[in-house]
Amino acid sequence: ALEDATDFHSLPILGEKVCLILGNEGRGMSPYLLSHSDRNAYIPIQGIDSLNVGVAGGILMEKLRS
């Protein structure tokens, strides 16, 4: 669940296989997907409720690329 999620900046992903699944902007990830994932991460934001899924995807893919 998201209570156990890690700030994406802290994820050690170098050399790991990753499947990036993005949730709905308002509702987030389904409980089914959350329960079947090895790790869950979030993007910390301030001053807004959520990020556009395209923006969130870009942020996370840049993290995976570097």
Shape: globular
Give the count of structural domains.
1
User: How does CATH name the architecture?
Assistant: 3-Layer(aba) Sandwich
In the predicted model, the low-confidence regions spanning at least 5 consecutive residues are: none
What is the percent of helical residues?
25-40%
What order do the helices and strands follow? EHEH
Class, according to the CATH hierarchy? Answer: Alpha Beta
Report how far apart the termini are.
27 Å
Number of helices: 2
Largest beta sheet, briefly? 2 strands, parallel
The fraction of residues assigned to DSSP E strands is: 5-15%
CATH topology: Alpha/beta knot
Q: Rg to the nearest angstrom?
A: 12 Å
Q: What do the pLDDT scores average to?
A: 84
Q: In the CATH hierarchy, what is the superfamily?
A: SPOUT methyltransferase, trefoil knot domain
Strand order of the largest sheet: 1-2
How many beta-strand segments?
2
Helix vs. strand class: mainly alpha
